[in-house]
Design a protein that fits this description.
The structure is a homodimer of 151-residue chains.
Chain A: H1 2-7, H2 12-20, H3 24-33, H4 39-46, H5 50-62, E1 66-72, E2 77-82, H6 84-104, E3 112-116, E4 122-123, E5 125-129, E6 141-145
Antiparallel strand pairs in A: 1-2, 3-4
């Protein structure tokens, strides 16, 4: 199975892709994040087949990205909610959006905007160093082997 | 073609996935980023078929993520380099790594570490607001329709 092959690489990119590495999973995650939490609503929003959606939701729950929360006892009905692991993955979606807005939105401009609660301004996320708080990007780092590197 | 379908959604996540939405593309991008730039070297590093690698490299060049740079005239040989668009996409990989390190690395710890040039410390990227510089995440923003939202 392709999934296992990627997850076994000593690489956090490959392992993350192992969880969300096909287009539907990030879009399902996006839907739950913005409040589209029920099977039928997600299915209608994405135009995804019920079979594929069932599989992807099961996978995302197994991976601890989404949880189920009952909203009706009779009949029993549940909706999907983000776990802490899933909520942090939404930060990845935000960076995906920042890149997509910049390079793929074209003349129409960004499909959505983010308003930051702290300052009240529409803005976008930038990467800062967890140690010194200054900007961090692929051009101002060295990449070193970590403790989990393959022998 | 599934690719077109995603790219046509008024959603920067879907459009970004349209460019890198299958596991090989981000891993090829990672290889070029860390200096594995020649066809044979990428092929050996990823264990990917030559056919698939040829297709994915062609796609990434067409999308303006990678460029080709000749390193030998006779015989003519070229290697792949990041464009500005591709280099910014590596920021997305860095956030992917931060999430993967936190949630998928297990007891072995992170496969790689980043040392930030500005401060010299091993650290990881965090998201900060482009307006006020304070931390930004999926839990402290409102999502508003943007100019490019579908009618």
């Amino acid at each position: 199975m392709q999934r296992t092959q990627f997850g076994e690489l000593a690489c956090s990119i490959a392992r993350t892709l192992d969880v969300i590495g096909e287009p539907w999973s990030p879009l399902i995650l996006r839907d739950v994040w913005v409040g589209i939490r029920r099977f039928d609503a997600i299915q209608a929003d994405l135009g995804i087949s019920r079979k594929v959606l069932t599989e992807r939701l099961k996978w995302l729950v197994e991976q601890g990205i989404l949880g189920r929360q009952e909203y009706s006892h009779r009949p029993p009905r549940s909706e999907y909610v983000l776990t802490a692991k899933g909520a942090e993955l939404c930060s990845l979606l935000m960076v995906m959006v920042a890149w997509g807005d910049r390079w793929t939105a074209g003349d129409a401009g960004p499909p959505v905007l983010y308003r930051h609660h702290d300052c009240g301004h529409v803005s976008h996320p930038e990467l800062h160093c967890s140690h010194c708080d200054r900007p961090m990007n692929a051009g101002n780092i060295d990449i070193l082997p970590g403790p989990g590197a393959a022998a």
